[in-house]
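Observation: inputs received (chain + guanosine-5'-triphosphate).
Thought: call the complex predictor directly.
Action: predict_structure
Action Input:
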Amino acid sequence: MEHQTIVAQTTPVGRSGVACIRLSGPKAFYLARKISDLNKKTPHRRACFSTIYDEHMNKVDDGVFVFFKSPLSYTGEDVVEISCHGNPYISERIIQATTVLGARVAEPGEYTKRAFLNGKMDLAQAESVGLLISSRSREAAEHQTKNLSGAASNRIKKMQEELVALLSCLEFEFDISEEEANLSSLSLGLLKSLKNNCLETNNLIDTFALGHAYTSGLRVVIVGEPNVGKSTLMNSILGSNRSITDLAAGTTRDTITAEIIIGGLPTTLIDTAGIRPTKDRVELAGVDRALSELDRSDLVLSVFSPETQEIENIEDTLKISVYNKSDIKKYSGNKHSIVSVSALKNKGINSLIKTIEKTLKDARPYSEDILINTERQKGALKLCSSYLEKAIDNLDSTPPSLELVAADLRAAIDSLSSFLGKTTTDKILNQVFSTFCVGK
Ligand SMILES: Nc1nc2c(ncn2[C@@H]2O[C@H](COP(=O)(O)OP(=O)(O)OP(=O)(O)O)[C@@H](O)[C@H]2O)c(=O)[nH]1
Ligand SMILES: [Mg+2]
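Observation:
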């Protein structure tokens, strides 16, 4: 339990109708009373209007105070939330008054870290708080809300309960049963359950690819020879005039990026310089940038037009071949998987967007109703899966080494505990919460 009282603005810093400042810790009520007209009779969990003062009792603003008595608060500690007018000078004066009187400014993610340490949420839920706040699409936010309410954690807890039940059954049997018949029927049942749990763990690991795409976004890069209509295509997909287009080849030099949501996936669309051999230094730098974008992209739109070919050597990357300028001449080649568009006339663009969505999602298949979304969660599940595989091998050997199976099961259970943050080191905790911003 932390003994220091912390303070920070929980709403974005800037100008707004209302800003919220949160105090959390043993002195929260005392400090709130010191800078207001409120006294010990102030009811909890009710909005109370008061003048707000600085440390010298000069009026700063009028606002609303809500007192939350421990443990019924976000952090599990005594908390006061103060809503004032959304002006940085007002917030700063309130924060300063409380720090002069004994609070300290909260570190990034400290409220959520305290909520975790006080058992208000597990580590996977705490991670979802940060990811929910930074969600860049409705679907991404919905998915985090689901995990914040415990969807992923509950699945993990259920799996853990099953493994604990298997372990106790195993330990009970080899304590009391000497009969081989009993052990072999036990082994069969155990093997089936272990295989089911292993499959479920691997299915959950597979959901990481899509979960991670929702949280981190994807990069779709448009490449091709000069003048094939890459910038026109970029503008047409965005529905806005983001990139300069011109009939002269070599118009785009630098990479141009734009944010777009495709099928709920936050996507960065990147227009690049036309790729061709050139002696022009600036153009060459543009071509280099285009090539390095290719390397770090999740999907390439490889554009060509009636008078050009697709550029070669796009390997190891997901690719959609886009034939542009179909208004001038229909595609007459023999490749099947070509998407034909006219960027200038906005023809075929919706179907291209659908193909992009399908290609991105097909590359991230999953068969679960929840998605995991941090490397830490994936790592814990991978460890669990590897111990379950070891347990299956040890059970399958003749004669089965039941002591080893039990040890593997214990390790698998422990890795699920670390998913939930029950056995997590300070270093990992600090890593998780350092990605948050102050006030969360
Ligand atoms: N007819 C027709 N013209 C197009 C189409 N798309 C682009 N263009 C024209 O082709 C020319 C080149 O278009 P851009 O979008 O600048 O081509 P780019 O590939 O970005 O060219 P660079 O930046 O030089 O590599 C412009 O004159 C566009 O108007 C299309 O679908 N049909
Ligand atoms: Mg261009």
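Thought: report the result.
Final Answer: Residues 230-231, 251-252, 271 surround magnesium ion (ligand 2) (CB under 6 Å). The longest strand covers residues 59-68.
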